[in-house]
Amino acid sequence: MKNNIEYIVIAGSSGGHILPAIKFINNLSKVKNPNNILFITNKIGENFINKIISTEIEKIQISSSNKIIYIMKIITLLLPILFMNKKVICLGFGGFITSPVLYLSKIFSLFLFKKNKIYIHEQNIVFGLANKFNYFIADRVFTSFPSKKLKDKEIFVGNYFNEFTSNLVDNKVTSIQVLLLGGSAGSLELNKILIKELKKLNSNNLKNIQLSVQIPHSHFEEYKLKYLSINNNINFFSYNDNLRFEEYDLIISRSGSGSLNDILYKTGNVYFIPHLHSRDRHQELNLNFFKNYKMSLLELKIPSQKTISDSFYFNNLINPFSIDKMVCYLTR
Fold first, then answer.
1. Distance CA 181, CA 185 (A)
2. For residues 300 and 190, what is the distance between their CA atoms, to the nearest angstrom?
3. What tens digit of pLDDT does each residue of 95-133 get?
4. Most-buried pick from 114, 164, 176, 309 (CB within 10 A)?
5. CATH number for the 7-163+320-330 domain, one of 3.40.50.2000, 3.40.50.150, 3.40.50.720, 3.30.470.20?
6. What CA–CA distance (Å, rounded) separates 181 from 191?
7. Is the entire prediction scored with pTM above 0.85?
């Protein structure tokens, strides 16, 4: 195991935690030696780990259905790293896997005279369960939503982790572009809603609609057939991080923090449907923040004509340099 680790980045449980962590790693490796960076994730991270650009960054993937065995694996793998490195900057992006790593690092600092520093990034307007525990030992906490009541250890940075692209729209496209996104894993609920809306349209309107639809991998073939029975102008995908949101006349999406920031930075032609079955209803609370500023559509209706215009669109609530701000702070 390497004895020159300076940064340990930890994220797991969902793409909402893992994707901003990978963006941070990619940006960090531009200014720091990639050999000094370690990424720790769980089984879900396997789906995204290929997005890490540098092959020199060490990656550890830990998984187990038994929580005790899971924690023991983390401790076994992490102990030699923390023993051999005197000062490590640890940054957790959320998910259960972050807590054992960050707390073990803190224990080393307290009892073995290490100089480890603990940081966390919270993507949502309310803290997730793991970050609620991590908050107590964190030296600094990076938040994604602006607030007038930031505590001393909290720093607002945002949660924009998409790649920058030109805002120029191809005005030659005459068909109505509709995009459905269900988060990093897709959503059957949103697909059912869109199919219901499409069935309300007559054949003439359907001919002028071009769909781009995200279907969960487990139900891909089933829902592909359902859509094709209504409209043939469809692009299907399970996951796509190269979408140009400004080119769509209507976007239907979950309201995870990453989706809200990435989409609303580019366009307001979006109708968000929060996932209401989470423990803390964070997607609903995320969405309400932007609704209070009259951002996003309040009614779901497939447009009968193009909604993209040449007028200037700007969202001053979203910081497009969120990840860069964190990199700057942690490399000072």
1. 9
2. 12
3. 999 999 999 999 998 887 778 999 999 999 999 999 999
4. 176
5. 3.40.50.2000
6. 9
7. yes
